[in-house]
Amino acid sequence: MPKLHPVIARAAQVVPSPRQLAWQKLEFYSFIHYGINTYTDREWGDGTEDPALFNPTKLDCRQWAKVCKAAGMRGLILTAKHHDGFCLWPSAATKHSVESSPWKDGKGDVVRECAEACAEVGIKFGLYLSPWDQNAPSYGQGKAYDDFYETQLRELLTNYGELFCLWFDGACGEGKNGKTQAYDWERYYAVIRELQPNAAICIVGPDVRWVGNEAGVCRPSEWSVVPSFLSKAEVIAAASQQEDGKAPTINLDGDDAWAAWDIGSRKQLMKHQNWAPIWYPAEVDVSIRKGWFYHANEDHTVKPLAKLREIYYKSVGANASLLLNIPPTPQGVIHERDVDTLISLGAQLKVDFKENLIEGSTMTASCQLDDAHGAQNIVLPGSDSYWHSGELHKPAELVLDLGDDLDINKLVLKEHIATGQQIEAFKLYIDQNTEETGASKWKLLEKGTIIGHKRIIQFNETRVRRFKLVITECRGFATLEEIEAY
Ligand code: FUL
Asked: Is the CB of 99 inside a 6 Å radius of any atom of ligand 1?
């Protein structure tokens, strides 16, 4: 393989932070859009809503957490405050909160109940705190609002245990005559790093990138290493939805830099070489229903199991994480339609990934860095060891021998991303000779690009004993941490 251009060599050296690695391992978690909009039947409030409207009769955060867990999720992100400014916790910075509602005589705290439920059920907890706040009198006054926002952040970051992420969106629908607030993002980020250094700062933030649409679609090559301008708050805000709660019109085929179909290839890195490459992995956010908040007239829009499963394969299985929104009803529970579908999804994923048939396999490679990085490491599930090709001058070939003919319909490939994302293209073959001996008859099964944290490759169930994986293009070297076969 030809010598790397310095721009690409630099990208090959970019690695995730420990918090990004921890976040990536969660893979699938929920968004809970709940607040005053749940009671006004709107997607975006305007900050004039009466807190007295907030009065759940059966609020059950345990049910939320349990349903998430049953669906196969490892975390939950709650909208502590949406654009209307109503806070789901009693905030010292405003009275526009649950404290002014009849629920539990103003003594309730949804953030606390939810944090406790997640801890009890054993999933991670994260928070969404809308920067745009139409109720705060200081909104649009620069530092005064930043002070207010920092107070709220500190409350959330200190009183509710460990948070796995803080989620900021760039939406602001103030329109031409609205207020403009220049958020002091660096100040907000510093508070998060100070109080919860392990929390990932998502979307408008340095740790996790919005995939660019709300349809559950990833790019075919969803690079985790991209030019750093993509993490600039102005760029993200410009790409976010701007008009009354409408989904963004971003089209991944568009040619603006954010929306482009390709943002991390060599071509893009060369084009944007003045922007240092950063580790900025993608998250796919999508709602189980039409809207982000609950609306009874959208009960029929709950996505069917097949659609959710497809979204899972196309996000978690394409080097992104999946943030699936489930909005509770005005009673404060997840609607039975959503519950049924989510339970089926969890059951389906359990069946799909029930028995990893890799145990007892052998894996050989045409090259390896040293004895500690041999190909057999790839078929030791759960171990930290991995295969490292060493510097590559020609394609690396790996052969997986399952030890017997087995009926397989998917492989899961994982790069060792702690040492960066390197693989740019691969070919996967199956051996049509299923006997132990005799010459292999390789048939091309799949031609792919990136692998990253996880690439799920599905195919028609085939009786097969051996696979060959050829890494045809990569940056510097290649690694693989694990292969699973189902
Ligand atoms: C957007 C918001 O405007 C929507 O209401 C929703 O919260 C979505 C996840 O992010 O920017």
From this structure: no
